[in-house]
Structures are given as C-alpha cells and as structure tokens.
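Record 1 of the preview.
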Amino acid sequence: MKRHEALIPLSREHHGTLILSRLLRSDAPAFKGLPHDEKGKAEYALKFYREELIQHFEQEEKMIPMLKGVNSTLDSLLACMQLEHQELHSLFNSLNQDMELSAQLDMIGRSLESHVRKEDRVIFPLIQESCTEEELNKLADILTEK
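->
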C-alpha cells in the first residue's frame, strides 16, 4: 500500500531509526561510518534519541486525539504505540545505569525495531484504511504544526 502523504514524513524518519536499531543489536554487523564499540554505540544512540526520536515520538502522539474513536482496533494500537514510546524513553534514559551495556543496547535495538515495524506495517496502514481523505488531510495539518 502506498503511504499517504500525511504519514510519509514519519515513515521516512523510520529509516534512520531502523539503522540505529540494527546497529545496537548484539549480532549487528559493522556499519560504515558508525561506531563499532559499545561505548561509541551508546553515545550515538543517546545523541540520536535526543536529537531525533524524542521529537518523532511527540509527532506520532499528536495523531492520537484526532484518531481516537475512529475504530477500536486503531484505539488499541495507538495506546500500545504510546506505551511503547514510554518504554523506549525509559530504556534510553537508563542506558549505562542498570545492566551490562551490551545487553542494554541489544534490548533497545530489538525493542526499537519491533516498534517501528509495527507502526509501518500495522498502524500506518490501518490509519489509511480507516480514515477518509479529509481526515488524513487534517492529520497532515496537525503533523506539520510547530
């Protein structure tokens, strides 16, 4: 399914997030131009989180009030999305504090990948299927507000 233009910016941002998620996994191959050691990966992850992900999560959560009540499945998925955002905030904010760094990075990488895949493969298509063109255009307006 072709992505509606209202969701394209969010979907495009997922590319960098998927690269990060793969980089952080314990079985990750070396990525040219990205850190190879655990400390470097952790620093890169925190920088990406602060500069990209926090704002990305906020943008996605702007959709919730407008989409609430469109259908019960979407309501459940949006609630799940918001919970996953909270869990990811906690994982990033506790990086280097509780567990072995390698295990923390792997957990973040796997959680982040699962989250993004769910949004791209399930939530965004359901939004497109459930909303009218007018609703999707309003969604685009909401997502472009500063």
